[in-house]
Specification:
- The chain is an alpha+beta fold and about 325 residues long.
- The chain has three domains: about 1-95, Rossmann fold; about 105-120 and about 180-325, 2-Layer Sandwich (D-amino Acid Aminotransferase, Chain A, domain 1), CATH 3.30.470; about 125-175, Dna Ligase, domain 1.
- Helix content is about 30%, strand content about 25%.
- The protein has 14 helices and 13 strands.
- Helix 2 links the parallel strand 2 and strand 3 (about 50-55).
- Helix 1 packs across helix 13 (about 315-325).
Length: about 325
């Protein structure tokens, strides 16, 4: 019985969607959250249990207490942001998804190698010693919601901004002019089928708000664009682009099974892309887990309604995969 297991996650990022989806699939639910968010999560009847902690670092100490119970942890972006990649790998609780991918997600050079091996278009990368002759975006490593980025127009601008940049590890890549599109996939190792569950674009401050000001107002203000994500907007891609989008996802999965391990990438993941006017699709980053843009689609998206005759969020799709794995006695295939 699926209800023997409790689905648990940290109270942040996409916890509400994950736990609502778990409840819809018949699982008891548990959120582990900071004390000051306790009253917030108590507003939602689909959350059966709340454990409060003083800081996210206490989560690992909590494991001994809850390891005795049949609990499955569903990770999201805050696991990386607050616990770090190494602490994630050391978690002993049953964990939905592959921890082997954490090293690849953390290292932008490894990400790039993965995408190139999958024959995915990626922006030109500038290495140490290269002369920067076009606009570039500089990205720190890790999941930080767009923090730790800066834009530079040329070599001189890059050197000036780098002098006050605090991050030690970063990637310098060509700034591609086009539309940012975030594609939310789900790959099932049970059915070996790839789905596109939804698509969004991010709303970033202040780069998006600057576009609302006429140029003559901006002139002389000396405002540097920032890319901190404060929300997401739903997007539907034109149908003629979808075959290539599916093919990209399939190549990424197949390549992961060769580069990383036999199981490779499975569950939810997101290709963060830029689509140019000539409809070339560049991948700027991959997130190997549920992303916050899926929160727009708790009742499903136009794409999920083509596959399911019921609301299907990414959170619910995860819970259904877990339920089916339990029923088929294949939990080991999806847990780490």
């Amino acid at each position: 019985m699926a209800t023997r297991y409790t689905i648990a996650t940290l109270g942040s990022h996409s916890a509400l969607q994950i736990l609502k989806g778990a409840a819809d699939e018949g699982f008891p639910t548990l959120v582990i959250t900071l004390k000051d968010r306790d009253s917030f999560y108590r507003r939602y009847s689909f959350i059966d249990e709340i454990i409060t902690i003083s800081s996210y670092t206490e989560f690992t100490k909590l494991q001994a207490k809850i390891l005795k119970r049949p609990i499955i942890i569903v990770p999201h972006g805050s696991f990386v942001a607050y616990l770090g990649f190494e602490e994630n790998k050391r978690l002993k609780l049953p964990y939905f998804g592959s921890k082997a991918l954490l090293d690849w997600e953390a290292d932008r050079k490894k990400q790039r190698h993965w995408m190139e091996a999958a024959e995915i278009l990626v922006p030109h990368r500038f290495r140490k010693g290269d002369h920067i002759d076009r606009p570039v975006i500089v990205k720190s490593y890790g999941a930080a919601g767009g923090a730790g980025y800066f834009l530079a127009k040329n070599q001189n601008d890059f050197e000036k901004k780098l002098a006050v940049f605090t991050q030690k590890h970063f990637l310098v890549q060509e700034y591609i002019i086009g539309n940012p599109v975030y594609i939310h996939y789900f790959y099932s190792p049970l059915t070996k089928q790839l789905e596109i569950l939804s698509i969004d674009r991010r709303y970033e401050t202040n780069v998006d708000s600057l576009g609302r000001l006429p140029f003559h107002y901006q002139k002389g203000w000396q405002i540097d664009p920032s890319y901190v994500v404060i929300g997401n907007q739903a997007l539907t891609l034109r149908e003629s682009l979808l075959p290539e989008v599916f093919a990209m996802g399939e190549r990424v999965i197949t390549t992961s099974q060769k580069l990383i391990n036999k199981r490779g990438l499975y569950g939810p993941f997101c290709l963060e892309t830029i689509i140019t006017p000539d409809q070339k699709i560049y991948v700027i980053e991959i997130s190997c887990r549920i992303v916050a843009g899926t929160n727009l689609f708790i009742h499903g998206s136009p794409l999920t309604w083509l596959t399911y005759d019921e609301p299907m969020s990414t959170g619910r799709r995860i819970a259904r995969e877990i339920k089916q794995a339990i029923q088929q006695k294949k939990l080991a295939l999806i847990l780490n």
